[in-house]
Amino acid sequence: MTALAGPAHSAWRYRWTVLGIATFTQAASGFFVQGIGAMGIHLQRDLHLSTVQLGLLVSAAQLVPLVGLLVAGELLDRRDERWVVGAGAGVVAVGLLAGSAAPGYVSLLLALLIVGAGYSTVQPGGSKSVASWFDASQRGFAMGVRQAGLPLGAALASAALPFIAEAFGWRATLVTGGLVALLGAGVFMGLYRRPPVPAAPRDDGPRASLRSQLGARLRMLREPSMTQIMLCGASLISVQYGVGILTVLYLHETASVGVGPAALVLVAVQGAGIVGRIALAAWSDRRRSGRYGSLVLCMAAVLVGMAVLMTPLGRSPALACCTLVWLGFFGYGWYGPWVTYVTESAPPDRTGFALGLAMSVNQIAIVVMPPVLGLLKDLSGGFLPVWGLLSAMTAVALAVSARVRPGNRPRSCGRHGV
């Protein structure tokens, strides 16, 4: 705690260290799962998988968080993020290392369920840790940097894992992912500290019943701002995972791009996502329309990109690559402003639960969409129905969000307006 023992100003400078370790832990914990798309051709070849089965690998890692995010949110409101996030990243490492010994596809799915259980704490925990260290004037930028950890991990995985799989086999990629996650757990537990603010006074009055506590939390679902956020999140997270899983396959099969160059394009897509998460979140700190305006811009840009992919223009290798990078910027970049919107819309004592609740709604889309998109591709033999479904979901979310103009949208029920 020596970093926090000095004057208040020096102590608050530690927030940049917190931001760095939260970003690193996010990247390390999501390293393997976010790299599955780049290994799609290798996994299909070595394990004889269909596109649906490939999508199910991603869904398996995201299934437990449907409930796990809610549990993690409660833990984060009651316990130090240091241990909750660190332990979760450790479970991710254990699951991946166990998966490296999986005898086949079904065993690998079970190992990824364990990975998902651990990852449940990393997303809301890292977001809460960063939100608690930064005030509203810098929170969007900081959250954007932290959320860039996901595409950063994905980009590094997309660059490294296909070569590891080619040289040493798919099992070596799980060992690599497990060791990276273990490093992330150690860094977070070793370096994270809570902000230097007085502890909130304890409430020694009678505790509410479990039923009333649950009811108070679930009433957040009826808040117009939360409903709007979750609808935007579900549509855009579907785009993000669709682009992440299918970019290499689309470029290889539709635009006749080689496997190696297609994997490098996916790295560029995820690199654009890193820039997008930081730039769009920083932009939302300074614009009058704020987080809302950034989300609307992202949905409109996604519709433009999907429209290109659904026309013959999408068969041009150069234009397809540029369009997918465009979708990387906006289809990944939305998450920084979105997660900031969630933290600022939540009551101060329920930030962890609000993050867990909103992210668990996203998890429904994360679990359902990869196999659904894979099934559409397998049944149709092409990608037009895939991009069409993602476009329709985004258009619906944009239409609903547009009914609430930035000037009269619901005010935040938390500490800061959005």
From TrEMBL:
<feature type="transmembrane region" description="Helical">
    <location>
        <begin position="83"/>
        <end position="99"/>
    </location>
</feature>
<feature type="transmembrane region" description="Helical">
    <location>
        <begin position="292"/>
        <end position="311"/>
    </location>
</feature>
<dbReference type="InterPro" id="IPR036259">
    <property type="entry name" value="MFS_trans_sf"/>
</dbReference>
<protein>
    <submittedName>
        <fullName>MFS transporter</fullName>
    </submittedName>
</protein>
<feature type="transmembrane region" description="Helical">
    <location>
        <begin position="353"/>
        <end position="376"/>
    </location>
</feature>
<feature type="transmembrane region" description="Helical">
    <location>
        <begin position="170"/>
        <end position="192"/>
    </location>
</feature>
<feature type="transmembrane region" description="Helical">
    <location>
        <begin position="382"/>
        <end position="402"/>
    </location>
</feature>
<feature type="transmembrane region" description="Helical">
    <location>
        <begin position="257"/>
        <end position="280"/>
    </location>
</feature>
<dbReference type="InterPro" id="IPR020846">
    <property type="entry name" value="MFS_dom"/>
</dbReference>
<feature type="transmembrane region" description="Helical">
    <location>
        <begin position="12"/>
        <end position="32"/>
    </location>
</feature>
<keyword id="KW-1133">Transmembrane helix</keyword>
<feature type="transmembrane region" description="Helical">
    <location>
        <begin position="52"/>
        <end position="71"/>
    </location>
</feature>
<feature type="transmembrane region" description="Helical">
    <location>
        <begin position="229"/>
        <end position="251"/>
    </location>
</feature>
<feature type="transmembrane region" description="Helical">
    <location>
        <begin position="317"/>
        <end position="341"/>
    </location>
</feature>
<dbReference type="InterPro" id="IPR052952">
    <property type="entry name" value="MFS-Transporter"/>
</dbReference>
<keyword id="KW-0812">Transmembrane</keyword>
<dbReference type="Pfam" id="PF07690">
    <property type="entry name" value="MFS_1"/>
</dbReference>
<dbReference type="InterPro" id="IPR011701">
    <property type="entry name" value="MFS"/>
</dbReference>
<feature type="domain" description="Major facilitator superfamily (MFS) profile">
    <location>
        <begin position="18"/>
        <end position="409"/>
    </location>
</feature>
<keyword id="KW-0472">Membrane</keyword>
